[in-house]
Amino acid sequence: MGRAAHTGIRYGVDEAINEYYMSYPIITDEHINEAIKLEHMIPLAKQYLERAWPGGEYEVKIERNDFIGFIDYMTDEIIIDFKYTKDSANYNNSSQLFLYLFYSKKEIEQIAYLIIPKISIKMAKTEQIHEFRKRLNEELKHHQPYFVYKSLTNVTYANHIIEFRRRIREIETTHEFAKTKQWCFCEYIDYCLKGENYMVLPPNIRRDVTEMKKRTMWIYGAPFTGKTTFANTFPNTLMINTDGNTNFVDAPVVFIKDRITTVGRSTEKILAWNEFEDVIKLLETESNEFKTIVIDLVEDLYEHCRQYIYSKLKIDHESDNSFRAWDEVRTKFLTTLKRIMNLDYENIILISHEDTSRDLTKKTGSKITAIKPNIQEKIANKIAGMVHVVARAMVDGDKRTLQFKTDEVTFGGGRLPTRTKEIALDYGEFADLFDAATKIAAASETPAPERHRKTRFPQTKAEELPVEEAQQHEPEGSPRRGNKETEFGAPENRRRGRPNVATLEVEPRDMFVTQVEEEARLSRTAQQENTSEVPIRRGRGRPRKNA
Fold it and tell me: Which residues are CB-contacts of 428 (< 8 A; sequence separation ≥ 6)?
């Protein structure tokens, strides 16, 4: 506001309001209220200034080896600095005007502040916006700009200059800065004052799933299915829009598009991707009242990211720099999208159109149409991993639904532990479904941690042992199984087996040696038996069974 007031006094109200609006990506009622104040105060300040001290010069630059500054307004008799404030007493001890006078090297006898009153009244909860603005205009009529002249005695003048130079010398010669104890109410006060370090790991306590209120989803569907309208019904929504189709939604909108600015004869193009990153930065750092962030459309942002990388690498297509461009586009887009998904808002909604241009060929040779979001498959899989649920918006006559199913044809699904595959395209039903799924997840038992057990080797079954050893493992009185012969005539139970190593009290290495020796012995025995029982037959065909 102060900078806009400076601009308005010099160039006019329109230029001031335009500069003020351009400082924000979103214009709300509060910004318009401030613009009303500027419209009232700037003409009065300009008229008051030029009537009292006509013929002055604006923005006079002072440039010395040890000082650089700008004087807001200066004549041959006075130096004036503009202040947009509600209390001029804040500048009683300021050295600013004294420094301007000293370093300007001008023979001037007066210095003053032009105070532009800052009106701070708030709208009542029961008050309509037109009622508040009417009250604001009435309040503005009781205020007008005024001058605050500073006493320019030799002692005061000298004291300000000496103190300023002393502080500069102190800054230049100081190499270690002691911590200044101030009021600190945050949990890291011991870190600031005592230098104690903190673990970044969370405590080993399971989280309560029912307390996690953040919901993230990706909606896709054909045009005119109601995706944007559905997102508009979420509480305190901010639309980040790329296609301009917001005529029938009343949520605040930030339009992401390329902008052309003109300064004199030169023009500058601000890419839409730069605008998008600026909006994310504001959402990360500035406090606001939004609860829902909507990205509409995701595939348009991907194209803006491509154009940004083209401009950065000075290419016309990814294939012009195939070793780098493809990876840079994908990495830049997904990294920035993760910043959106990590924002601390209750609902984050991504919107895309659907793509039905691809056919899948089944094993039978028949073709079916694949239904998926209108973006590359690798990118789609990454985005799906960032959200709780991927849903397809559909319309059948007057019935609009949201489908969560996924199959070989439809791209969808999610993390919600629910069997519901379709609901009406309604915020209430979606919220109920999500809350119910959260309760189901919270009610499910957490598996007990697996106990650490000593390593035990599996006990070999009696059927896997040679006949002699298998008989040793059979209890008394148990019926013995017959020796069923194989196709080659060798008994089926005469194959290589392992002894019951679980009963052997030996070290693991000795046990391994014992197993190897036993297997070698059994192998030789089986080889001898097969040689004697299976006759060698010449010619084609399989060997006969023994009679």
Answer: none
Tokens 């104690």: give the residue: 196
pTM of structure: 0.49
The radius of gyration of the chain from alpha carbons, rounded to an integer in Å, stands at 40
Rounded mean pLDDT of the chain?
Answer: 80
Distance CA 435, CA 429 (A): 10
Asked if 113 and 242 sit in the same domain, the reply is no
Strand partners, 527: none
Number of structural domains (the chain) is: 3
In a domain, 540, yes or no: no
Place 193 in a pLDDT band, splitting at 50, 70 and 90: low
Round to whole Å and give the CA distance between 513 and 495.
20
DSSP, res 371: B
Which residue range is the domain that position 332 belongs to?
213-443
Q: Which of 171-175, 193-197, 233-237 has the lowest mean pLDDT?
A: 193-197
- Contact present, 357 and 370 (Cβ < 8 Å): no
pLDDT value at residue 6? 87
81 and 111 co-located in one domain: yes
The full length of the chain comes to: 547
Distance CA 416, CA 86 (A): 53
| Residue-level pLDDT at 74 | 93
- Choose one of 100, 133, 166: the last residue of a domain: 166
Q: CA nearest 490: which of 534, 543, 538, 521? A: 534
Q: Reduced to 3 DSSP states, what percent helix, strand and coil does the chain have, rounded to the nearest 5?
A: 40, 20, 40
User: Tell me: the pLDDT tens digits for 375-417?
Assistant: 998 999 999 999 999 999 999 888 999 998 887 788 988 888 7
| Residue 194, in any domain of the structure | no
Q: If residue 64 lies in a helix (H) or strand (E), which one and from where to where? A: strand 57-64
Q: Residues 412, 287: one domain?
A: yes
| pLDDT of the residue at 369 | 85
Residue 80 CB neighbour total at 10 angstroms: 22
Same domain, 482 and 427: no
Same domain, residue pair 35 and 148: yes
Cα-Cα-Cα-Cα dihedral sign, residues 312, 317, 319, 320: negative
Does a structural domain hold residue 158?
yes
User: For 448-462, what is each residue's pLDDT tens digit?
Assistant: 455 545 445 455 444
Phi, psi of 531 (to 5 degrees): -65, -35
Please indicate, yes or no, whether residues 290 and 401 belong to a single structural domain of this protein: yes
Q: Which residues contact 49 (CB under 8 A, 6 or more apart)?
A: 9, 56, 73, 80, 114, 145
Structural contact between residues 329 and 270, judged by C-beta atoms closer than 8 angstroms: no
3 state DSSP class of 35: helix
Q: Are residues 230 and 96 in the same domain?
A: no
Residue 254 lies in a domain: yes
